[in-house]
Structures are given as C-alpha cells and as structure tokens.
Inverse folding.
C-alpha cells in the first residue's frame, strides 16, 4: 500500500476517502471512462466465451459486460457511448468459472481502445454476489449498504482497499484518538462524532450519512488551514517594519502631476489602501490582483515612489529577464527625468532606477551593485539575481513581486529578509483568484482587487479555429496575419513548445489533423500488443510507425517558422523567434526590435505570457491552443488589446469537437472576464491543487476541501479560527487541533505559510 498509494499508516488508510458510492444493483456508466486511465466500475456480465489463441499457446477468455442491466428495475440511463465493453483475460480459468451471464461484478483495470472500442486487458474483478470475504466486498454492516469505490491502482484495487479498511477498524482504539474539531463546532453544525464519521465515511448505511461524514472532514480541513493562516497573519502583524508615510510634494506627487491619463477609481482606491499600509510600523502583506491590463504596474510604481520619498528603497522582482528589462524601460519612460537623478538632464530631486539581471555585463553589474549598496538607486528592478548574497541594499523598504506563482518560497523569503526590519511586501498577480480561493491560499495576505480597465483599451475578439472540421481555414489564418501587418499592426504566433531538436513534419497543419486524430487508437493498439504479446509483426510495426508520426506531436516554434517561410501570404514579412533557449542578449534584442516595430511577426512560446507590452500588436494566433490551460490562454491573450486598435485572438486546435480539451478554449473564447475564467478553470480541474500552485509546484494539500463548493464551510471555519485563537493563541486547550495542524501541514507547506 505504501508503494502503490502512499498509504503508510492506519491513519493514512482511514483518510483514504472513497471516490464514490455505488448502490447495489446500480451499474456504472461507461460514458464516464477515460482512455488510458485506471478505472473501477460496476457492470453486469452479458456473455463469457473462451477460445484457444492462434499465434501462441494458451487460451483467451472474453467477457462482454454492459452498463445497462438486463432487468428493468435496475436499468440506468446511459449516455451516448456504447453500452457494452469486452474484457480480455489470458489463461484466466477462474474468470471463466466465476463470471457468467447476469452476474454483477466490480472490475478494475486500465481502459484502452481496440478497433475503436473500449476494452480492459486482465482486469481485476470481484463478483458482488459471491460469498468470499474479498469477492463479496463484505465491508458493510448491511448487505443493502452502498459499495465504496476507492481511488485505486492495478496492484491495489478498490475491493482490496475496502478489505484493508475493515481490518484497520478493528485495530483502532477510538478513545485515544484526539478529535481536531472542537466539540462546540461539531455540535453547532450537527456533525457526527469522530468514530461515527469515520465509519460512515467507509461503511455508510446510506448516501446521506456518507455526505455528512465528508462534510465533517471538509470542515476539519478548513479549520486546520484557516487556523494556521490566521495564526500566521497575527504573527506577521507583530513584526517591526519601517513606516513609509507619504511625503508632500515628493516624487510621487510630481509623478501624479505628469501622468498623461487619469487614474481609474479602482486604482485610486487601491492606492489609498497601500498608502495606509505602508505608513504602519508593521509590514504590509498585500496581494494585488487584477485582470490583464487593469493597470497594476502603475499602482505598484506609485507605492514604490512613496517608499523612495520616505528614504527607503523599493525592489521589483520579475519572473523573467525579458519582463524585468521591460519593467525597467517602462518605469524609466514613465518617470522621465525623475528617474535620472545625478545625470545630465535628470531631475536632482528625483531618484535612480537600476536594472540587475544575471546576464548583464560585469561592468554594468558592478555599477548597479554600487548604486544599490550606496542608496543612489531608489528603485531596483531584477530577477532572481536580486537574491544573490552579493546584492546589499542600503535600506530596503518595499518588495514588489510580479506574478508570484513563478517564484519559489525560499527566493521570496531571502529578498524579504535582506534588511534588519521586515520590508513591506506587495504581491501582484494577473491571474484572477476567486474570493474563496484567495481566502484559502492567501489567507495570511490582505487582498486588493483592481476592477475594470483603464480608458482607451479596445475589447479583444476571440475565435476558436477548429482545423479538424475546417482544414481550409489554415490558409486564412496566414492571410489574416498579412492583412494585419499591412495595416501597420504586429502579430504574435504562439506555439506550445520550441522543438529545436525535433524533426519538422513535412506537412501542413491541416494535413496533420488526421494523423493526430488517429494517434490515440494507434497508440492503444500498440500498448495492447505489447501487453498481450499477441500482435503480429505487421501490426506492431504499424503501431510503432504511427506513434512516431510527427503529426501526433505538438506544434513547435520551429515548425511554425517553416510554415511561415513557406506561406505565400507571409512572403517578405519581417519575422523573428522568441523562446527560452535563446541567449539573454538575443532575447532582449528581439523584444526591443518587436517593440520598436521593426519585426512584424513574432513566433514565440509562452515567454510572452506575462507583462510584455507592445500596444501596436493587435493579432495573436495560439496554435494547439488545447495544450494550454485557461489561465495561460488568458494571459497570452492579454498581450494584445493594449492600444487604441481593435484586436483579434485566434485559438487554433486540431482536436475534434467534443474533445475535453476543447471545453477550455471554448471557455476562453466566450469571455474576456478573467474572474469568470478563473471560476471556469477551477471548475474544470476541480481546484484540488490550488494550494500546491501557491507553493510553486508542490503537491496538492487540499484533500476533501473544495474552494468553489465549500464557500460557507470556509467562511465559517475562518470565523471559528479567529474565535479559537482569541481565547487560546497557542492552542494549548485545543491540542487535538494543534496536533492535526502539525500532521496536516507537511514541511513545504509549513514553510510556505511561515514565510508568506
């Protein structure tokens, strides 16, 4: 169990929650099965046949099962998929003996495709009407109780987990198990006690009992997380920080006077919040979220200028050198002479804005380090190079982190601890976060939201281009790009990978559609042949050749470059590529050339996802858009529509209509509202990994809690956490909760919460 499902203790086993319940007599719909994934289902046997194999010794037993009962009183409503599936057993004489027409059984195995039909090879099975301990799934107190179906693997099947859970219950002395949920909380919500909750989680007498048990454990999880976050916030609020009050007639006031536009009401409101936070003797810890193009950078710059006016330095940490260089250039342009103190033509009452990146020439780096250490540089913009031990700040007062999810916890922590006093922290994100998710993930941060867009922004029109059903549209894509460039605008072509080391397929995108569509079945045939060793040499060779077919892979920047070069519509267009494998000077030169309008078409990867600001770029084509997540697509789309001209984004896919990945791109095409898309994103992926995302790729910490579904539970738990900590700050009188928090938060999560 430890190897298969990471279940090491009895506690781990009892916390392994059934994925669903199946009523006895009810069958599982085959429509819900995913190809190439392990599945556990309840089905009825239609027929069993055994025959000798032709090309090898032994026999094969084929069991046809159905998700439609032959008895009307047990019939379920099936979807549009086939209602029968064939299971293949090799030399499995017990299957031929134990399975017969009309038998209901639990089947566990990998679902694959053979001749266009779903199948399983040598699945584990357990008849539901047998008498043996495992086969009968005799873990219920009542034969009419629903059957738990657990997350399982081929080696550790659902019924074996159920048997292990039954054995584990006999080993637990419940009087010695501390309950993390205080009695008052459990009573207030009508939850069962802890032993009953565990029994109903694994051996429920009915569905209602199971859902109530799960609600108790979700509430417990929410309370543990919120208690840790509230405790963290209160600890941060006790740390000392240098107050940075506003300075009348300082650089900030002069900057506001020279702004060529009016701040939006939202920008002013958030600015007032930041002014108040920075004036306090305890560090600001604020998350600033706003949709793409909402004007977060101006708000952050005003906060940095307030810090400079107060005699401190501000650091802006960007995720990439391209973005750091762009921030540096845009801040200098916005400030003008105010950013050139000490230089000819600079304002003597201004400050200096310094860029520090890892690829800078040694002489420029030394000069930047000296200005940072001496305090000449009021604003420092950089990447992870700012985190080097060689970087010494004169008086770091404010840290602004752009796109937090791209930095590790330790990196942010190192910069924040650069001075004797804790600097104020402002985290910016253009990835909209629903309120309950922000409460769950950033519960130790104050949250500000920039709503709306600054004036002058034109809406972006988004279309899904389905090459599967409309292969001729490929030529039109290149024609539209040419039209945009001839109108004086610029274009992005985005690919999901670089592909420098891959062979470029000698085919158009439309020609690759058929190969891509056939790939899953061909791959399934190949895998099935390998598993059973029954395939002929011809079929194996055919499968392997198909698996290597270039059309099965993702579109790369290299492939796009060759398609652009071969396209008559784009003949003579100035084109360049931008991706992560380029050297930093080459990336900078390419980006500067594009920003200056010297490059008409930029073929790139997601290196342009964040922060790149070229107002003249009005047309974007995202190829293989189904390979990207909703948030990524929304960020990419935000690179256009930044000027006065109307903009268009095309999401190109070779997937067939109805493919699950098309739900994502359809959602993006349907709206430009980032918060609405964030809700859709979390709904599609069930937001189980949101805390993991916040930890820069750590494993999921949320077990049962769902931020979208459990709004009331999270809000209630947060209030209860504050009430508990008001009377018991150290949790000495709530030792069950304290122990649970310690066990719940692994080392990485604890560091995340501790460092903010």
């Amino acid at each position: 169990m430890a190897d298969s499902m990471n279940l090491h203790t009895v506690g781990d086993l009892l916390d392994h929650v059934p994925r669903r319940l199946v009523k006895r007599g009810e069958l599982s719909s085959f429509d819900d099965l995913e190809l190439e994934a392990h599945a556990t289902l309840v089905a009825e046997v239609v027929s069993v046949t055994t025959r000798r194999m032709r090309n090898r010794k032994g026999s094969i037993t084929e069991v046809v099962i159905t998700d439609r009962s032959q008895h009307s009183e047990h019939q379920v409503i099936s979807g549009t998929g086939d209602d029968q599936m064939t299971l293949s057993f090799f030399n499995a004489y017990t299957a031929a003996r134990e399975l017969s027409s009309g038998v209901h059984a639990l089947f566990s195995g990998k679902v694959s495709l053979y001749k266009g039909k779903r199948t399983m090879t040598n699945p584990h099975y357990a008849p539901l009407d047998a008498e043996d301990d495992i086969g009968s799934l005799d873990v219920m107190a009542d034969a009419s109780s629903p059957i738990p179906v657990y997350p399982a693997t081929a080696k550790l099947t659902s019924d074996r987990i159920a048997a292990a859970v039954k054995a584990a219950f006999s080993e637990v002395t419940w009087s010695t198990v501390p309950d993390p949920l205080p009695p008052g909380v459990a009573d207030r919500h009508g939850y069962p006690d802890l032993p009953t909750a565990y029994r109903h989680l694994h051996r429920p007498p009915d569905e209602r009992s199971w859902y109530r048990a799960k609600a108790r454990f979700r509430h417990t999880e929410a309370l543990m997380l919120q208690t840790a976050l509230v405790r963290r916030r209160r600890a941060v609020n006790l740390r000392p920080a240098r107050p940075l009050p506003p300075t009348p007639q300082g650089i900030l006031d002069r900057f506001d006077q020279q702004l060529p536009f009016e701040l939006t009401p939202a920008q002013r409101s958030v600015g007032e919040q930041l002014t108040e936070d920075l004036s306090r003797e305890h560090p600001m810890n604020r998350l600033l979220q706003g949709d793409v193009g909402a004007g977060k950078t101006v708000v952050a710059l005003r906060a940095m200028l307030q810090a400079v006016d107060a005699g401190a330095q501000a650091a802006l940490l960007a995720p990439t050198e391209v973005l750091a260089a762009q921030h540096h250039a845009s801040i200098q342009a916005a400030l003008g002479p105010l950013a050139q103190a000490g230089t000819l033509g600079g304002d003597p009452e201004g400050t200096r804005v310094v860029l520090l990146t890892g690829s800078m020439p040694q002489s420029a780096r030394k000069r930047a380090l000296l200005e940072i250490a001496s305090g000449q540089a009021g604003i420092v913009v950089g990447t992870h190079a700012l985190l080097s031990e060689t970087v010494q700040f004169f008086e770091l007062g404010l840290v602004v982190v752009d796109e937090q999810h791209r930095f590790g916890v330790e990196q942010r922590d190192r910069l924040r601890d650069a001075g004797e006093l804790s600097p104020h922290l402002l985290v910016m994100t253009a990835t909209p976060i629903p309120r309950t998710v922000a409460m769950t993930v950033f519960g130790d941060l104050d949250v500000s939201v920039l709503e709306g867009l600054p004036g002058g922004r034109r809406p972006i029109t988004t279309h899904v281009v389905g090459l599967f059903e409309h292969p001729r549209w490929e030529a039109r894509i290149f024609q539209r790009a040419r039209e945009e460039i001839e109108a004086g605008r610029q274009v992005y072509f985005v690919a999901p990978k670089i592909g420098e080391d891959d062979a470029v397929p000698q085919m158009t995108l439309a020609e690759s559609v058929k190969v891509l569509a056939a790939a899953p079945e061909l791959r399934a045939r190949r895998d099935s042949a390998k598993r059973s060793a029954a395939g002929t040499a011809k079929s194996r060779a055919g499968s392997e050749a198909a698996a290597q077919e270039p059309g099965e892979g993702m579109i790369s920047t290299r492939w796009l470059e060759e398609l652009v070069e071969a396209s008559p519509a784009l003949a003579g267009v100035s084109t360049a590529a931008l991706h992560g494998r380029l050297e930093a000077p080459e990336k900078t030169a390419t980006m500067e050339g594009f920003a200056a309008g010297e490059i008409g078409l930029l073929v790139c990867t997601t290196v342009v996802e964040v922060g790149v600001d070229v107002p003249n770029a009005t047309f974007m084509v995202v190829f293989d858009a189904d390979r990207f997540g909703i948030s990524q697509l929304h960020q990419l789309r935000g690179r256009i529509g930044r000027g006065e001209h109307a903009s268009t984004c095309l999401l190109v896919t070779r997937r067939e209509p109805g493919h699950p990945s098309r739900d994502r791109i359809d959602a993006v095409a349907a709206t430009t509202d980032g918060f609405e898309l964030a809700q859709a994103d979390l709904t599609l992926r069930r937001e189980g990994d949101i805390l993991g995302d916040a930890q820069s790729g750590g494993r999921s910490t949320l077990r049962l809690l769902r931020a979208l579904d459990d709004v009331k539970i999270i809000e209630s738990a947060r209030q209860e956490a504050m009430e508990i900590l008001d009377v018991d700050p150290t949790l000495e009188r709530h030792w069950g909760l304290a122990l649970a928090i310690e066990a719940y938060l692994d080392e990485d999560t604890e560091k995340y919460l501790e460092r903010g």
